[in-house]
Design goal:
Helix content is 70%, strand content 0%. The protein is an all-alpha fold. The protein is globular, with a radius of gyration of 11 Å. It starts with a helix and ends with a helix.
Length: 56
């Protein structure tokens, strides 16, 4: 079974909040991930999800 913390960490609500903060605060992806304390081991997954929001 998956670790509950990992499931919560990849919650799409967090992605939505990161995207909103990037827009409102003019943060880069790296700055937003830092502000949301995304663990280093999950950053690649988050970056890929965020990229999907911008790339057609």
């Amino acid at each position: 079974m998956s670790n509950v913390a990992e499931i919560e960490a990849l919650d799409l609500r967090v992605i939505r909040n990161i995207l909103r903060s990037m827009t409102n605060e003019h943060w880069s992806v790296a700055e937003a991930l830092d502000e949301y304390d995304i663990p280093t081991e999950l950053r690649g997954e988050y970056e890929a999800l965020i990229e999907e929001c911008f790339v057609n």
